[in-house]
Each structure stands twice: as C-alpha cells, then as structure tokens.
Amino acid sequence: MIRTALLALPLAVAGLLGATAVPAQAAAPAPLTCKGQGVDAAAKIRYRTEAVINAPLSTIWKLQTDVERWPAWQPAVTSSKRLDHGPLRRKSQFRWTTPVPETATTPATTLSITSTVHQVGHRSCLRWSGPAVGEGLRIDNGTHVWNFTQVRGGVLVRTEETWTGAQVEADVPTSTQFLGYGLEAWLADLKKAAESRGC
Length: 199
Fold this sequence. Notes:
Elements: E1 2-4, E2 16-18, E3 33-34, E4 37-38, E5 45-53, H1 57-65, H2 70-73, E6 79-82, E7 93-100, E8 109-121, E9 125-134, E10 137-151, E11 154-164, H3 166-169, H4 172-196
Antiparallel strand pairs: 1-2, 3-4, 5-11, 6-7, 7-8, 8-9, 9-10, 10-11
C-alpha cells in the first residue's frame, strides 16, 4: 500500500493510506468523549474506527502519549515535538508534520499540525484539537478523541476525529475518505507497535 497523508490533522492523524477502497464505516454510534467532551458535533467531516490490541494498556498508553516518539512507529509522522514538558496533560501542546500527496485540488505539501490537549483521562481517554497548515492546504481545526478500554483479549482502542475549514469542506467525500485512511493507518500502526513489544 502506498502511504499518503492527505489532510492529516493535528489531532489526528498521522498519515493516510492511499488504498483503492474507501474504509467501511457502520451506522454512526454515539460520539466518543473524554471527560464529557467529544468531537465537533457540527463538523461535516468525521470518521470513527476501533480495534482490539493484544497488548498491555500501559504499553498502548505510553506509545500514544509519548508524542515525540511517534515517528519511530508511525511512518507517516515525519517529526513531532512537545512544546511543553512533563507528562501529556490538559493544555499540553505539540507540533508534528506529515507529508501530503498532490490531489486534483491541492498540491503536494507537508502539513504542520499544532495540537492542544484539552482532556486526559489517565489510561482511559485523550482529546486534542488544532489546525493543520501546509503550502496550498489548510484544515482550520481538527478535533480528535481516543478511548482505551480493557477487554477480554486486550484493549479496545476507539478513535474519532472531525475536521472543519472551507478548503476541506469544499469536497466532503474526499476529505472524509482521507481522514478515514489516516485514522485506519494510525490505529494499525499503534496495534503493530504495541503488539510487537509483547507483554
């Protein structure tokens, strides 16, 4: 598969899979939340996915919250830097980059994504948001929620993200498709990294 990262959001995403099929998505369940806050309810672009990861919750949490190490296990994240110090917490900020391929309406570019953490439930949920800006491409705001629940066989990891902005809203189906590719890739990379570390 060819990795693309069209419109990967600050919250979100870290890259996109350029596959030929559109990711499947079931009827919309209730939005994910972290400490009572969810994605942007008015956003036209949204995607949600989940997977059971056969690894300890502590391993999965460490991978997801150690944002400066994302490039080590997410090929679509080319850089990531914390803008503050200490554990990831409310008001933490980080800046990361991801390449974006050319499309019919946007040039190839690298998105610089500045994320601000709004909610953290220790080892249970994360919620962050922020803009993604590249030459010729802008996502005004992306809101990303992650939930982590221990289940038989591992940890159920669920994620949901929304995007807003005139440029991405000009083609909602394509933007939603790329957001879906990005979240599916991120979750697959997280699963692979966590399960390869063993118990």
